[in-house]
Amino acid sequence: MDLGIAGKTALVCGASKGLGYGCALALVQEGVNVVIVARGAEALEAAASKLIAARAGGAGAAGPFVKHVAADITTPEGRAAVFALHADYDIVVTNAGGPPPGDFRTWDREAWIKAVDANMLTPIELIKATVDGMAARGWGRIVNITSSSVKAPIDILGLSNGARSGLTGFVAGVARSGIAAQGVTINNLLPGSFDTDRLRGTAAGTAQKTGQTIEAVQESRKKTIPARRFGNPEEFGAICAFLCSEQAGYLTGQNVLADGGAYPGTY
After folding, report:
1. Which of 20, 118, 247, 258 is most buried when burial is the number of CB atoms within 10 A of its CB?
2. Spatial distance between the Cα atoms of 177 and 173, rounded to a whole number of angstroms
């Protein structure tokens, strides 16, 4: 299927690896120009090189451009660096690492502010900076990578539950405002268990606490997923690319759950 987005320009956050990289990969393979941002310069440069090699037309062709900027997108300075590199975006994929797990009794105000800043206020700032330009041009796609915990909260992920749920409530309103009639959609993409560094790190922590092997911890978790496996960044990216497509123009204000069937509810 031709997604109809070749030649568009996308900003993809947290794109040096994992789910963000999977989204950037899917977009460049559709002929989309991408600007990728992450904090780690070395990993980001490596990701940019891989994207150039994988883009539509190949590394040596005059395919879509791939630009990168090493910055902390959660800061005003980081966002300024991104928009200095390229000003106008047709597609924005917001993504920031989730806050650490723990007991809510131990979280102080600083921990809450950091979580809300990264996982709620930063996406809102990126929406605010780009949505009017999209509306003026009559086309735009914004996809926020949030978490399955928005749908089914996890007790030790209270910081994430709270901050991401705040973003979800905000998007529910703004996606249905006047911008919907101007060709701009905003949706949230909710990952469950995907094979990423974060999941492997969580498994390692559980293994250390319980005395199990990492492999045993991962196998036990897979058994809780009807698909009996973890997702991979490439298939996550494909879902993201579809949400950015011409065909998804009638889909807005939605929370798309990609979790292998782990969520047990009907609605």
Report:
1. 20
2. 7
